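Before any further analysis, backbone shapes were mapped to integers, which produced the following:

***
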Amino acid sequence: MITSSTYVEDLVRDYPQTVTVMMKYGVICIQCGEPIWGTVGEALERKNITNAAEVLSALNQSINQSVSAIK
């Protein structure tokens, strides 16, 4: 499960499909632009994103859909 304390570099390495979700919300990440370090929560704060729960839900949904597609 992706949380606000998940490290961005771990997120995009382990779940590359989340890059499109991050881009949708305007968060630049390792594979889609200049690298950022730190947690997902910190990245959202830097972008002044106040709907963190929505972003986290979308990220988790993207990894769940990928797992379902494999089954």
